């Protein structure tokens, strides 16, 4: 037996199964599980459980995220789409009126994104390119986006993300930057690295509105939300 409840965010749910609550989204591609997540039916609607240990956005929500700019109808530029674990939940949330451009540099990884996500979801546009060279894919991003979500685990991830932001993000849009501390510095405390990357965003003229340490879901990772 399961019980579905709305969360405080549109198209994001809590499902209680055997006394335990799990985050979930409504499956835009019924019958398809992207990364082995459990599918749950309730009142004729299929939901996908959303694993906070596999998706940093779910980890941030589980840790009490207050600012969630991804909603039905949102246009998202997603850097580091990988095999589509988080992209697929973003696709569920934005629904058919939204759009997610998923940039992924590795063709091997992107193949899985195509097979498991793009094939079944019309609101995901794959871009197999390096986020360091936004000019190479500018032609595909035919409108300014509401949100830029970046999870590329690079030493210069903040700079790459800002370059994409200045090119593709709407004024007043939101930037979500995942900071992987150990990609940036091998020894500095995670909290110092997160603060330093947040300051880079402020120095570039953005307003940082929320910072979450993703521990225990992702150790040594920060989740920063900023207004563009
Ligand atoms: C930590 S994984 C992303 C996981 C994904 N965001 C999720 O939650 O499902 C980082 C991904 O970024 C990709 N990546 C790294 N550098 C990149 C770049 N310069 N441009 C585009 N993708 C990049 C990697 O190939 C990898 O798939």
Provide the gyration radius in Å.
17 Å
Task: Estimate percent helicity.
Answer: 25-40%
Mean pLDDT: 97
Tell me what portion of residues adopts beta-strand conformation. 25-35%
**Main β-sheet: number of strands, strand sense, barrel status?**
7 strands, mixed
Contiguous uncertain segments of 5+ residues: none
The level-1 CATH class of the largest domain: Alpha Beta
The CATH superfamily name of the largest domain is: Vaccinia Virus protein VP39
Q: Judging from the principal axes of the Cα atoms, what is the shape?
A: globular
Topology (SSEs and partners):
Elements lengths: L1 E5 L6 E5 L2 E7 L12 E4 L2 E5 L6 H7 L12 E5 L5 H10 L4 E5 L3 H10 L7 E4 L17 E6 L6 H12 E12 H4 L5 H14 L3 E7 L7 E7 L1
Parallel strand pairs: 6-7, 6-9, 7-8, 9-10
Antiparallel strand pairs: 1-2, 2-3, 3-5, 4-5, 10-12, 11-12
Bound molecules: S-adenosylmethionine.
Descriptive overview:
- With 228 residues, this protein is α/β, with parallel strands linked by helices.
- It folds into 2 domains: 2-50, Phosphorylase Kinase, domain 1 (2-Layer Sandwich); 57-227, Vaccinia Virus protein VP39 (Rossmann fold, 3-Layer(aba) Sandwich).
- Helices cover 25% and strands 32% of the residues.
- It contains 6 helices and 12 strands.
- The protein has helices at residues 56-62, 85-94, 107-116, 157-168, 181-184, 190-203; strands spanning 2-6, 13-17, 20-26, 39-42, 45-49, 75-79, 99-103, 124-127, 145-150, 169-180, 207-213, 221-227.
- The strands form 2 sheets. Strands 8-7-6-9-10-12-11 form a 7-stranded mixed β-sheet. Strands 1-2-3-5-4 form a 5-stranded antiparallel β-sheet.
- The longest helix is centred in the C-terminal third of the chain and has 14 residues, at 190-203.
- 46% of the residues are buried.
- The mean pLDDT is 97.
- The structure holds S-adenosylmethionine.
- S-adenosylmethionine (SAM) binds next to α2.
């Amino acid at each position: 037996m399961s019980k579905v409840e709305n969360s405080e965010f549109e198209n994001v749910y809590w499902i209680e199964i055997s006394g335990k609550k799990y985050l979930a989204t409504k499956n835009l591609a019924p019958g398809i599980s992207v990364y082995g997540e459990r599918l749950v039916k309730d009142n004729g609607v299929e939901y996908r459980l959303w694993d906070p240990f596999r998706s940093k956005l779910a980890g941030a929500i589980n840790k009490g995220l207050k600012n969630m700019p991804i909603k039905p109808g949102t246009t998202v530029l997603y850097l580091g789409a990988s095999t589509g674990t988080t992209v697929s939940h973003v696709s569920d949330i934005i629904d058919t009126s939204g759009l997610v451009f998923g940039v992924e540099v590795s063709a091997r990884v992107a193949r899985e994104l195509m097979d498991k996500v793009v094939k079944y979801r019309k609101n995901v546009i794959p871009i197999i390119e390096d986020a360091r060279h936004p000019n190479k894919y500018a032609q595909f991003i035919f409108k300014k986006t509401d949100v830029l979500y970046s999870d590329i685990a690079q030493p210069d991830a903040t700079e790459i993300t800002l370059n994409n932001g200045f090119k593709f993000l709407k004024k007043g849009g939101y930037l979500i930057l995942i900071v992987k501390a150990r990609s940036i510095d091998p020894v500095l405390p995670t909290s110092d690295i997160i603060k330093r990357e947040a300051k880079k965003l402020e120095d570039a003229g953005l307003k940082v509105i929320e910072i979450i340490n993703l521990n225990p879901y992702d150790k040594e990772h920060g989740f920063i939300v900023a207004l563009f």
